[in-house]
């Protein structure tokens, strides 16, 4: 009996340790042999996760291609999107012109690739405006409460009562034409949904036990907001931003289709569809293929947003 107690004291035969199993080696920071194996396991888990969801994998590939086309269009085509060859107008899609040519002999594929830069730029600006302004309104309304919440939410209700496209049209008419102005108008039209989601999440987190404990311990309001409320309320708002990315692409393209975007010959996606609608009878590819690019991008971003929403809901 005394020998077993001595072993327990020395740490040789601790019953708790025996129940937990053999002790793991302590990582001393010198790079243990198990670290590369853990990394390989993480990579395998990510690959297995994507392979089980081919739709999500395809959506990620589409989004990556669009981003690459926006920043490095020369990776996909070397043709000038503004230079046309009149003798090659209205050529069908072929190996030399993947998306055919338009009425001026310009390569439609190169115009779609270079137009991704303008459309993605406007979409990013629109989502950032909605995320920052709407998120700020929601955080202030949910965290401060009282009459501030009432005033801000009544303003948000007014925005929600107006259809987003009509509000965007009114704003872009007041601001003027151009890609950036279209983006700002689309972003302001989406502020209300971001404010609603941000306010709901802040109200939920503000009533959590750890927030109440932080306040009871004497923490300042800005410490509670920055350490506890914002990090725990940001997830659904980020998911909404991903989902709103696709809706913003549609809104920006719609305003460009109506002629509010960059002036010709800028190859915005909406402008390409607008230019090709007069030739649907003999050149269907002028509208169908740019429209397919828009549809693929919107569906891909929506699929990624649903995956993010599912992962956040399981947490």
Q: Would you kindly provide a written description of the structure presented here, covering whatever features stand out?
A:
The chain has helices at 2-10, 15-20, 34-51, 54-71, 108-144, 146-160, 164-175, 179-189, 191-206, 209-216, 221-257, 269-276, 285-314. The longest helix has 37 residues, at 108-144. The model is unreliable at 1-34 (pLDDT under 50). The chain has one domain (47-77, 100-314): MetI-like fold, CATH 1.10.3720.10. It has 13 helices and no strands. The chain is 71% helix and 0% strand.
Structural class, judged by helices and strands? mainly alpha
Q: What would CATH call the homologous superfamily?
A: MetI-like
- The radius of gyration computed from the alpha-carbon positions, rounded to a whole number of angstroms, is 27 Å
Number of strands: 0
- Average pLDDT figure: 80
Tags for this entry?
mainly alpha, MetI-like fold
Topology:
Elements (H helix, E strand, L loop, with lengths): L1 H9 L4 H6 L13 H18 L2 H18 L36 H37 L1 H15 L3 H12 L3 H11 L1 H16 L2 H8 L4 H37 L11 H8 L8 H30 L1
Helix pairs in contact: 4-5, 4-13, 5-6, 5-8, 5-9, 5-11, 6-9, 7-8, 8-11, 9-11, 10-11, 11-12, 11-13, 12-13
Could you give a quick summary of the protein structure above?
The chain contains 13 helices and no strands.
């Amino acid at each position: 009996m005394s020998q077993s107690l001595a072993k327990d004291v020395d740490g040789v035969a601790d019953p708790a340790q025996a129940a937990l199993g053999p002790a793991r080696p302590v990582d001393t920071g010198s790079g243990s042999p198990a670290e590369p194996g853990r990394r390989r396991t993480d990579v395998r888990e990510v690959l297995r996760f994507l392979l089980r969801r081919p739709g999500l994998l395809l959506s990620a590939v589409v989004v990556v291609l669009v981003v690459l086309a926006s920043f490095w269009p020369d990776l996909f085509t070397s043709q000038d999107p503004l230079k046309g060859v009149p003798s090659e107008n209205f050529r069908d899609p072929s190996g030399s012109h993947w998306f055919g040519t338009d009425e001026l002999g310009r390569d439609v594929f190169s115009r779609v690739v270079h137009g991704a830069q303008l459309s993605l730029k406007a979409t990013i600006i629109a989502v950032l405006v909605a995320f920052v302004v709407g998120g700020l309104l929601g955080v202030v309304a949910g965290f401060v409460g009282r009459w501030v919440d009432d005033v801000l939410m009544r303003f948000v209700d007014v925005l929600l009562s107006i259809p987003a496209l009509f509000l965007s049209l009114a704003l872009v008419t007041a601001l003027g034409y151009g890609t950036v102005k279209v983006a700002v108008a689309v972003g302001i039209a989406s502020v209300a949904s971001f404010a609603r989601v941000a306010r709901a999440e802040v109200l939920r987190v503000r009533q959590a036990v750890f927030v109440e404990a932080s306040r009871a311990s004497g923490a300042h309001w800005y410490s509670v907001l920055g350490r506890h409320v914002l990090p725990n309320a940001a997830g659904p708002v980020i998911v909404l931003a991903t989902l709103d990315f696709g809706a913003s692409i549609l809104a920006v393209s719609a305003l460009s289709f109506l002629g509010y975007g960059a002036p010709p010959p800028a190859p915005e996606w909406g402008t390409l569809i607008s230019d090709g609608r007069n030739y649907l009878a003999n050149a269907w590819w002028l509208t169908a293929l740019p429209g397919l690019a828009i549809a693929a991008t919107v569906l891909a971003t929506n699929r990624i947003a649903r995956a993010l929403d599912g992962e956040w809901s399981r947490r």
